[in-house]
Automatic annotation (TrEMBL):
This is YqaJ viral recombinase domain-containing protein. It comes from the Eukaryota. It comes from Nitzschia inconspicua.
Length: 298
């Protein structure tokens, strides 16, 4: 993100943001990579726009972006849905640009494609997109038509004030497993909503937080060595030796393997015997070879 403001003179300020909830419909939200203050030719005043950054790793997607860059330039200004937009923004990402514009009500969006060269990121192409109001409103209606039947019941005022869901609150199409998940996670959502809501009903952002996640989600992700989680956890890895991002990334992958191994061991030694007490059917206990695991940093 720092490279972007240094590269483009039209970007006057750049802010990292969290989750935006649509004021018009609380069922819908969006979490862009950032928000820019942008100077656009033909506009008397700077405009706000959402920023979406995609770091490409596959050679095919990098080559496709570089080809679009050679046709249209490194910095492109277009209108949502026109030929240049369709050539520069992959179809899989176009709805994301519109979704951000609908929730934030911004007239512009920015789509940045980057790649990693020699351990550092570099910008391949920047696409500045104008989103016409009529097109934004049309997509807003479509989003509401989908979101309200699916999520509207979660935002009834009496449930919010109560602070938790019951089985009777859920529509009949919600399965038993889904009800369990909803009842668990809704409590966190309602508690968070009360935290950021003033007495007059207006919402305000939370103070800066290092992390705000559902504990079950965090524990699940900790053993899932994906790129986002590796990046998040790597920032918290302490190491006496000077260690670059790649080294921390490897340590994080080792940590994920050990977490999964430990959970598998707990499943055999703790959970399986407990399950056996709930059912008269004997549960065969798998054999486990005990050992000592060591992590060596070199």
């Amino acid at each position: 993100m720092r490279n972007l403001s240094a590269t483009l003179n039209c970007v006057k300020a750049l802010f990292e943001v969290g989750l935006f909830r649509w004021r018009r419909n609380p069922c819908i939200g969006v979490s862009p990579d950032g928000v820019c203050i942008l100077e656009v030719v033909g506009r008397d005043e700077p405009v706000l726009c959402c920023l979406e950054i995609k770091t490409r790793t596959a050679e095919s997607t990098i080559e496709a972006t570089e080809a679009a860059c050679s046709r249209h330039g490194k910095t492109v200004i277009c209108v949502f849905g026109d030929d240049i937009f369709n050539d520069c923004v992959p179809a899989a990402n176009q709805s994301q640009v519109m979704h951000q514009a609908v929730v934030t009500h911004f007239d512009y969006g920015m789509f940045v494609t980057s790649k990693v060269d020699d351990g550092s990121g570099s910008i391949v192409q920047v696409v500045i997109i104008e989103i016409p109001t009529a097109m934004r409103e049309e997509n807003a209606s479509k989003l509401c038509a989908i979101a309200n039947p699916l999520l509207g019941f979660l935002h009834r005022q009496n449930i919010i004030e109560r602070g938790f869901l019951t089985d009777d609150d859920c529509p009949p199409w919600v399965t038993a497993a889904q009800r369990t998940i909803l009842k668990t996670r809704a409590k966190l959502y309602y508690a968070h909503l009360k935290l950021i809501r003033d007495t007059d009903g207006r919402l305000h952002p939370t103070p800066p937080l290092l992390l705000c996640k559902h504990s079950a989600q965090y524990r699940y992700n900790k053993a899932k060595p994906g790129q986002h989680m590796n990046t998040e956890i790597s920032a918290n890895v302490g190491c006496a030796a000077r260690c670059g991002f790649e080294g921390k990334y490897v340590f994080r992958m080792l940590d994920a393997v050990m977490v999964n191994t430990w959970r598998a061991y707990q499943a055999v030694t703790d959970i399986a015997p407990w399950l056996a007490t709930l059912d008269s059917t004997p549960v065969k206990k798998p054999s486990v070879q005990k050992g000592v695991h060591k992590t060596v940093c070199v």
